[in-house]
Amino acid sequence: ELSNTAWACATLSEADVPLLAAIASKASATLPLELEKAIVRSRAELRGDLEAAQLFFVNAGELAWSFNFMSQAGHPLLREVSAACLDLGRAFDRNHPLWRPHPDVRPALGPAAWDAARPSIPWQLRGMCL
């Protein structure tokens, strides 16, 4: 998995630019197909589909975290990953209209540009693991 390789690189104290470029190139080529599969699985027609679709978010998050951690926040791959996550989120919204955001967590998200806001780590939530 590319996200695991990128994560492993991020834990090293130095960014390997050629390796990051190779990971980004492969991830860019793989992302559309993986997104398409996740969108289909988001319908949850078969047992295990929903979890498989949600795993896309985990892998995308690991990839984004890795590039951000290595001071590569402006890398074009992150725009692609962000757009893909938004597309999959919209597919979940279409396929599961009864899902509602928990009122104590946050209000529902409306449409926004990929770079509208940078996420922050809610450090005040006890017991939260990232």
Report the count of strand segments.
0
By helix and strand content, what is the structural category? mainly alpha
N-end to C-end Cα span: 19 Å
The Cα radius of gyration reads: 16 Å
- Proportion in helices: 55-70%
What proportion strand? under 5%
- Poorly predicted runs of 5 or more residues: 121-130
Mean pLDDT: 77
> Shape, please?
elongated
What's the helix count? 4
- What is the ordering of alpha helices and beta strands? HHHH
What characterizes the major β-sheet? Answer: none
Describe the fold and architecture.
The structure is a single chain. With about 130 residues, the chain is an all-alpha fold. About 60% of the residues lie in helices and about 0% in strands. It is built from four helices and no strands. The protein has helices spanning about 1-10, 15-40, 50-70, 75-95. α1 (about 1-10) runs parallel beside α3 (about 50-70). The model is unreliable at about 120-130 (pLDDT under 50).
Helices and strands in order, then pairings?
Blueprint: H1 2-11, H2 17-41, H3 49-69, H4 76-95
Which short descriptors sum up this protein?
130 residues; disordered C terminus
Quick recap:
This protein has helices at residues 2-11, 17-41, 49-69, 76-95. With 130 residues, it is mostly helical.
